Sequence to fold (133 residues):
Amino acid sequence: MTRPATILIVDDEAGMRLTMQRILEGEGHCVLVAADGLAALEIAGTSPFDVGLIDYRMVGADGGQVCADLRRLQPEATLYLVTAHVSPEAADAALAGGASGILYKPVDVVEMLGLVNEQAAKRPVATVAHGGE
Fold:
């Protein structure tokens, strides 16, 4: 097993949040969840996290803007947009705004875990939080 990390999942689809949460917790990671951009910013204001998995299309929020806002709050976190489809222009804007990459839905679990575990291995142990919802 790799070093545990704290992961923030932001997605307005409850099933997607729960699925990713169960997979990541099953690997020993701490998972924080938010159903929208506002909740994600509230969490980021009080709880450090290592990796953010942010849905691109959410009701009332643009995942690219959420990434940019999270980047300002937690510049050390690694952020990935999660999307079924995104235009090249939107992808470029999200990457310019602070996203490190894009995961396409349906999410490849092996790819997701590889990215999370890679980032977790780079983090000092002191940044790892425990608990979550």
Residues 6-127 form a domain with the Rossmann fold fold (CATH 3.40.50.2300). The two ends are 22 Å apart (CA to CA). Confidence is low (pLDDT under 50) at residues 126-133.
